[in-house]
Design brief:
Layout: E1 28-32, H1 35-44, H2 47-57, E2 65-69, H3 72-80, E3 86-90, H4 98-108, E4 114-118, H5 122-130, E5 138-141, H6 146-169, E6 173-177, H7 181-202, H8 209-216, E7 221-225, H9 228-238, E8 242-248, E9 251-253, E10 256-258, H10 261-272, E11 278-282, H11 287-293, E12 297-300, H12 306-317, E13 323-327, E14 332-337, H13 340-346, H14 352-360, H15 363-370, H16 374-380, H17 391-410, E15 415-416, E16 428-431, H18 437-452, E17 462-465, E18 469-472, H19 474-483, H20 487-490, H21 496-505, H22 513-522, E19 527-533, E20 549-552, H23 559-576, H24 580-588, E21 598-604, E22 608-610, E23 613-615, E24 618-623, E25 639-644, H25 648-651, E26 657-659, H26 673-679, E27 683-688, E28 704-708, H27 709-715, E29 722-726, E30 731-734, E31 741-744, H28 747-750, H29 757-772, E32 776-783, E33 792-801, E34 821-825, E35 832-843, H30 853-870, E36 874-879, E37 901-907, H31 921-928, E38 932-936, E39 944-945, H32 947-951, E40 955-958, E41 962-976, E42 981-985
Parallel strand pairs: 1-2, 1-3, 3-4, 4-5, 6-7, 6-8, 8-11, 11-12, 15-16, 16-18, 17-33, 35-36, 36-37, 37-38
Antiparallel strand pairs: 9-10, 13-14, 18-21, 19-20, 19-21, 22-23, 23-27, 24-25, 24-32, 25-26, 27-28, 29-30, 29-31, 32-33, 34-39, 34-42, 35-41, 40-41, 41-42
Length: about 1000
């Protein structure tokens, strides 16, 4: 585009305020009629039932209620109630008091419109000509048709709402100029039906049922004029939002009949807007020649096909129906677009002459307005060929603008998955009507947060988004369980293997098969199939990492096999609800397994292909609060853990790079070459893309490859992440070009800002915490493009609240004697007192063996089961990270194996010191269930641990690795949440 820096892909389209449209409605109609007319109406079928059926057939909402009365006294009684929006009075030939009643009503209730319904006869016409109609808003000819009632109501609603809806939002208008009561009484229902049918088509541009119903409010309005002056007034008022005019030729002008009033109107309008579509109609067939001369349409009022002719004209010239591409030489159709999606596709395919023809006549903008796509229509309204250097530039501008509009509209919306019109721009869509589950709700919130705060392209060269996601609602789960009679299996004592086998042998509901096939045909990346249960990531007690997640490779050449893998992954996630660990977790959290419902999140895996493996540039977990700040960091500055490859490495407690987004250049792990050599990532995870790598089993990571960093070096995927250790100089150098050992330091990102990670995390964490009203944890993955012309993408994968312990209790532990303390901690998590614990289980430091941590985990799990059975709690102490998937970093327990502990202590040994577990699912569960948490390293003067005192206590149970001791009196656990200090006192102290 010349003369401007306008970038269509960066333009932000505000949402159309459909909820502000049609605010004034007719809900209650007072129908005044004679007893005879009331009887006839009743015999023909109740009028409110007829109008209800008419509304339903046209997919309209809010049908009005009709209140029938037969005399003036009852009419005023109803009006006095104050709920009447419209008065309809029926005029018969014998009734001479109709207009008198109307005047009385108008005098007292001047804001209520009044309509007269009359059977058509010569005598009635003569009477109408004599009457004072000043109190009457409209007169209609009643032929017993319910669709006339609908047209009357919609005409009045259009009149009441036109000024606001047109001026504030851009709703379009059609002007009907007609003075024949009989004609417009039959004509208006036809026009409205055409509009409603058109609206039903364009409402499908809405991405879910709510959006579709809201879009109906944006339909064009019909405004009726009965003389020349009214027509001119409406034209002048709404000419910038006018789709077209339908006009009679003979009607009053200057208070007198004018047989050419319609022709004068055409000339007046064409002088202001030569392209305005106008349809003239007359009973005089000879007027067609004059219409042709003025280059406007013409319909003979006496034509037997008038309804079809009207529909055809409105569809073609008022921009209704499909967008028809015309060859300007032949004026014949060469192609058509039925919706915005196909219009975008055709932009690059139509001939230059066709594009020039439609642009010169503003057809695209008009078509968009008729479909209530107002922001995009406004964007194209003033586009001319002169604005561009070439036609190719015009095409690109139109294509990119439509694409950006579709993308903007798709963000923050949970769309209905429609296999016949799947929109590739959608971020999040749903199959089924049930709940989305916690994880999917979090994704929907993230998507809306990105849109609401305009984060998508806030940073140059970066796109902030969520992965393309489809959610199977919990109703699919219910249907699957019931159709396959699986509930009885889940309550049995079958092993996890047997439960999985039974679930895999079951069939998914047939109704989702075609949806899954459509999904597979559009998605090009591998897919992650994740749980999204009702309890998972919930606001008050979020579960984390309890159920299975499966990843499947994308096999484009074999969609049948792909569908089979996807189906098996879904069934495997369903089965994981009833595995032993899940049931134990439910028991520990006082939840009932029967209440758990499972939705499924099917999500594109973030990353790119490297030979036969797939992974993102890096993944991360970030929290808006930091429980272990190192000066000058504060708790409120937040913390992030990042690692090369798939996020499994992080959530399993691997050796990630830890930094505060506020101080990205201050990374303890890389502060010296020696620390970097010892404390940085050693391996990473990638998805195996070989088709045979996926098989449904209890190990949901069966097709994840655990790879050495040298493999990433071969893939050239670590160039933004790695530094090189020079063995000769013993120095750490940025980049990967030099010879030496490659270490994952993220130096290019954190020190040189080649990717604005710290800024993005600060913004997202601050925004997420503000909008959730609580501290949050997010998971994310980043794909950095090797092509500098393509943007990098930062994908938000998950958000959950961090449930902190109750900090309302003041705790003072400053004046406690050292002799009264079993242990003390300077980095405690939690707040308050626990004074009912008499049991303590600790791992014996003298016999701890990091090579046998799996055995230790099993022993602790058995002890924990005994506590669960007795309903008691205990203190648990052990070296390294609890819950780490890496047995060399700590004891790899799962949460159900320690779920009865009220205080968990991570203790360092003299030769075994590990950073705390912050940033893992395990750590999230500690905080969610308000378990006290200590990290102590007495060998570096970080806390105290009176092991001699514990060794002197009698044991209830002990073996090679653990001791379980029981005190004769409860010990007191005291945690000062504000100072992050904690102590465990000796019994009775």
């Amino acid at each position: 585009m010349t003369g401007t820096d306008d970038n269509p892909s960066k333009y932000f389209y505000n949402d159309t305020s459909f909820d502000t449209l049609m605010k004034k409605r007719i809900y209650n109609v007072l129908l005044i009629s004679s007893a005879y007319d009331a009887f006839i109406l009743e015999e023909d079928g109740r009028i409110d039932e007829q109008i209800f059926n008419e509304y339903v057939s046209l997919n309209l909402r809010y049908p009005p209620q009709f209140i029938q009365v037969t005399n003036e006294e009852k009419a005023f009684e109803e009006l006095a109630e104050g709920d009447i929006d419209l008065v309809v009075t029926m005029l018969s030939a014998e009734d001479e008091d109709t207009f008198g009643i109307a005047k009385k009503i108008k005098k007292k209730y001047d804001g209520i419109p009044i309509v007269v319904l009359t059977p058509f006869s010569r005598r009635v016409t003569i009477n109408l000509d004599k009457e004072d109609l000043s109190a009457i808003d409209y007169v209609f000819s009643w032929l017993g048709n319910a669709d006339l009632h609908l047209a009357i109501i919609k005409l009045i609603e259009d009149k009441m709402n036109a000024e606001h809806d047109v001026n504030e939002v851009g709703v379009q208008v059609i002007i009907l100029v007609e003075d024949s009561v009989r004609f417009y009484s039959s004509y208006l229902p036809n026009i409205y039906k055409i509009i409603f049918k058109q609206s039903q088509r364009f409402m499908m541009e809405g991405l879910n049922e709510h959006q579709q119903m809201m879009r109906m409010r944006g339909r064009p309005k019909i405004l009726l004029a009965t003389n020349y002056e009214e027509a001119i007034l409406l034209f002048e008022k709404y000419k910038n939002n006018l789709l077209g005019i339908i006009s009679d030729i003979s009607y009053d002008r200057n208070g007198k009949p004018d047989k050419e009033a319609g022709l004068r109107l055409v000339k007046k309008v064409k002088a202001a807007d030569s392209l305005m579509p106008i349809l003239l109609q007359s009973s005089d067939i000879h007027q067609s020649a004059k219409a042709k001369e003025l280059k406007v349409g013409f319909i003979n009022k006496q034509s037997k096909t008038i309804s079809i002719e009207l529909k055809n004209f409105v569809s073609e010239f008022f921009a209704f129906g499909d967008f028809v591409f015309i060859d300007p030489k032949t004026m014949k159709e060469i192609d058509r677009a039925r919706n915005l999606k196909t219009l975008q596709k055709k932009i690059h395919k139509i001939p230059d002459s066709t594009l020039q023809y439609h642009l010169a006549r503003n057809h695209i903008s008009k078509w968009l307005r008729a479909r209530a796509l107002f922001p995009l229509a406004e964007r194209f309204k003033d586009v001319t060929l002169e604005d561009f250097d070439s036609l190719e530039a015009v095409r690109k501008y139109l294509f990119d603008s439509i694409g950006n509009y579709r993308l903007t509209k798709a963000r923050g919306v949970i769309a209905e998955f429609r296999r016949d019109s799947f929109d590739e721009y959608l971020s999040l869509s749903r199959i089924g009507e049930g709940s989305l589950g916690g994880k999917a709700r979090g994704l929907a919130f993230l998507d809306s947060m990105i849109k609401r705060n305009q984060l998508y392209d806030k940073w140059d060269g970066v796109r902030i988004t969520i992965p393309k996601t489809v959610v199977l609602g919990t109703d699919i789960f219910d249907e699957f369980m019931e159709e396959n009679n699986l509930y009885k299996i889940t309550m049995s004592d079958l092993s996890d293997e047997e439960i999985l086998t039974r679930f895999l042998g079951a069939k998914l509901p047939l109704r989702i098969k075609e949806d899954l096939q459509t999904l597979i045909s559009f998605i090009k990346n591998p897919l992650a199939v994740r749980s999204s249960s009702l309890l998972e990531d919930s606001y008050y007690q979020p579960f984390a990492g309890i159920y299975s997640t499966y990843m499947i490779p994308n096999i484009e050449s074999d969609e049948k096999r792909m569908l089979n893998m996807l189906s098996e992954a879904i069934k495997s996630v369903y089965a994981s609800v009833y595995f032993k660990d899940s049931k134990a977790y439910m028991a520990a959290t006082s939840n009932v397994i029967d209440e758990e419902k499972m939705a499924i999140v099917i999500q594109q895996v973030v990353g790119r292909r490297y030979a036969n493996r797939f992974y993102p540039t890096f993944s991360g977990v970030a929290r808006s609060i930091n429980f272990y700040p190192i000066e000058p960091e504060t708790m409120e500055d937040g913390i992030a853990n990042i690692a090369l490859g798939l996020g499994k490495y992080i959530v399993d407690g691997g050796m990630t790079l830890r930094f505060s987004p506020k101080y990205p250049k201050k990374v303890l792990q890389t502060s010296t070459p020696e620390l970097a050599m010892r404390e940085t990532q050693r391996f990473f995870y990638a998805l195996d893309l070989m088709a045979d790598s996926f098989r449904p089993c209890l190990d949901d990571a069966m097709n994840l490859l655990k790879l050495r960093l040298t493999e990433a070096e071969k893939d050239r995927s670590m160039r933004f992440l790695a530094s090189t250790y020079d063995y000769q100089s013993k120095m750490l150098r940025d980049g990967v070009q030099q010879e030496g050992k490659k270490l994952i330091t993220f130096s290019a990102i954190l020190n040189h800002n080649v990717f604005p990670l710290a800024e993005i995390l600060q913004e997202v964490l601050e925004t997420g915490q503000r909008e959730m009203g609580k501290p949050i944890e997010i998971e994310f993955a980043v794909d950095m493009s090797p092509n500098k012309d393509d943007p990098h993408t930062f994908h938000l994968l998950q958000i959950r609240p961090i449930v902190e312990c109750d900090e309302s209790v003041d705790v003072d532990i400053d004046n406690i004697k050292d002799s009264d303390i079993i242990m003390s901690c300077e980095t405690a998590l939690g707040n308050g007192y626990i004074d009912d614990i008499i049991d303590l289980v600790y791992v014996r430091p003298e016999s701890f063996d990091s090579a046998r941590t799996h055995e230790i985990a099993d022993l602790i799990g058995k002890v924990n089961d005994q506590f669960l059975e007795s309903g008691k709690n205990y203190i648990l102490i052990g070296p390294g990270r609890w819950g780490s998937a890496d047995p060399h970093l700590g004891i790899p327990v799962k949460w159900p194996q320690i779920s009865a502990a009220r205080l968990i202590v991570e203790s360092g040994l003299e030769n075994y010191r590990i950073d705390p577990s912050q940033g893992t699912h395990f750590f999230q569960n500690l905080t969610s269930f308000r378990v006290g948490y200590f990290t102590i390293n007495p060998f570096i003067n970080d806390g105290t641990y009176n092991l001699d005192f514990l060794a002197g206590q009698k044991s209830v149970y002990e073996d090679e690795f653990i001791r379980h001791i029981r005190f004769n009196k409860p010990v007191v656990i005291a945690i000062d949440g504000k100072k992050k200090k904690g102590v465990v006192l000796k019994p009775g102290k």
